[in-house]
Amino acid sequence: MTQATLFAAEYGAPVALIAGCDEVGRGPWAGPVVAAAVVLDPAHPIAGLADSKLLSARRREELDAHIRAYSLAWSIAESSVEEIDQRNILQATLLAMQRAVAALPCKIDLLLVDGNQTPQVAMPCRAIVGGDAVQPAISAASIIAKVYRDRLMTELAQRYPGYGFERHSGYGTAAHRAALLTLGPCAVHRRSFAPIRRLLAQSIRPPTLKDVVS
């Protein structure tokens, strides 16, 4: 019995297309939160799908290319730093997921989401804690979201040099903390996050945000 058949029996309606959705970037101190949605093609299974955090960067890159080439559909969306600061990280994450699902070029029958919260979508949706490890479509979404965000943070490292975004992707590493103490926050730091908020309050640097315009 296929997964689609099992879900169809559970929901009492035909389930032809199932999408997986996951996010990357809830924890970092800088950069957007990114979500992806993927509809896998049963006729072209992709070997090696797993939680993106358990894969090497090289393997993620390889799988990213396969997912984009062999899936029935995929999409990627963001919520900006400004939206994170205005809405809070949870609501910004759900918004990015909603945007990713809306951007899919096909109508899906069921959405599977990693975690315990679901975005507002038109189709039935199930939240699965640890879903990126057990549902291939969610694993695929986590991989392409991770690869996309890492590339984006590398681009931001060129616009805002000195913070090491290309190495830590905005996470709160010791190197990132040291750079903040020297340079102060830049325009892509999440000012609502406690470490950045404390730094601004201490006025270690002049109160205006450092903004390097490319």
TrEMBL record:
One Gene Ontology molecular-function label: manganese ion binding
Residues of the RNase H type-2 domain: 16-205
Main EC class the enzyme belongs to: hydrolase
Alphabetized UniProt keyword annotations: Cytoplasm, Endonuclease, Hydrolase, Manganese, Metal-binding, Nuclease
Reactions mediated catalytically: Endonucleolytic cleavage to 5'-phosphomonoester
Subcellular location: Cytoplasm
GO BP annotations listed: DNA replication, removal of RNA primer; mismatch repair
Swiss-Prot/TrEMBL cofactor(s): Mn(2+); Mg(2+)
Pfam families referenced in this protein's UniProt entry, alphabetically: RNase_HII
Cofactor note: Manganese or magnesium. Binds 1 divalent metal ion per monomer in the absence of substrate. May bind a second metal ion after substrate binding.
Binding-site list for a divalent metal cation: D22, E23, D114
A GO cellular-component term linked to this record: ribonuclease H2 complex
SUPFAM superfamilies cross-referenced by the UniProt entry: Ribonuclease H-like
EC code(s) of this entry: 3.1.26.4
NCBIfam families in UniProt: PRK00015.1-3, PRK00015.1-4
Role summary: Endonuclease that specifically degrades the RNA of RNA-DNA hybrids.
Similarity section: Belongs to the RNase HII family.
Name of this chain's protein: Ribonuclease HII
Native source species: Thiomonas arsenitoxydans (strain DSM 22701 / CIP 110005 / 3As)
Designated gene of the protein: rnhB
